[in-house]
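This section describes the prediction task in plain terms. A model, or a person checking by hand, is given the sequence of a single protein chain and must write out its three-dimensional structure as a string of tokens. No templates, partner chains or ligands are provided. The sample shown here is typical of the held-out split.
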Amino acid sequence: MCEQKVTVYCGEEKGKTIAAFGCAVQSAIQGDSVIIIQFLKGRREGELEFLRRLEPEVKVFRFARSEKNFSELSEEEQQEEKMNLRNGFNFARKVLITRECSLLILDEFLGLLDNHMFSKEDLDSLLSAGTGDTRIMFTGRTMNDMLRGYTEKIYEISGN
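The expected answer:
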């Protein structure tokens, strides 16, 4: 078991990403560096433009090339996008290995696990890449059992 401090925001309702971004801003205020990698979001340029104003304390990366959400893509487009998502995953590992930030947010990563784009071995390699100095935050609809053993805190966002 790794020593990472892992937090998960999950649930069917909206607000998971916003909650994670709130943590990013709070960390930046405290002098920490934050990297956010977004998956399965499409390329919403207005949102990205706003988030870029938080640099250099909060850096946002998207490896998706399509402007559509992943679920809206054709099968051929999904295959291409999977390669882009793999690049994002590899970048996340590099961030952990090199200790580039105090907080790494992997936004909508749980959707990658739900769609079987990454295996338990992939997840193990990601979470063992760090030293425990970097806090990791995952967001997505469903808490994945593969992640449960690593998780320190789980917040479920619900409509109630």
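For orientation: The beta strands are 5-10, 34-38, 58-62, 103-107, 135-140, 151-156.
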